[in-house]
Amino acid sequence: MTNLLAPKGSIARAARVLDVLSLAPDGADLTEIVAQSKFSKTTTFRVLASLREVNYVFQDPSTRIYRLGSKLAEMARNAEQVNVSAIAERGMARLAEMSEDTVFLSVPEGASSICVNRKVGAFPIRTLTLDKGDRRPLGVGAGSLALFCSLSEAQRATVCRVNKNWLAEYGATEESLASEYEFFQVNGYARNRGGVVRGMSAIGVPVITASGRLVAALAIGAIDERMKQERIEELILPGLKREARRLADRLNAMEKEQNK
Question: Which residues form a coiled coil (predicted)?
Answer without folding.
Answer: none
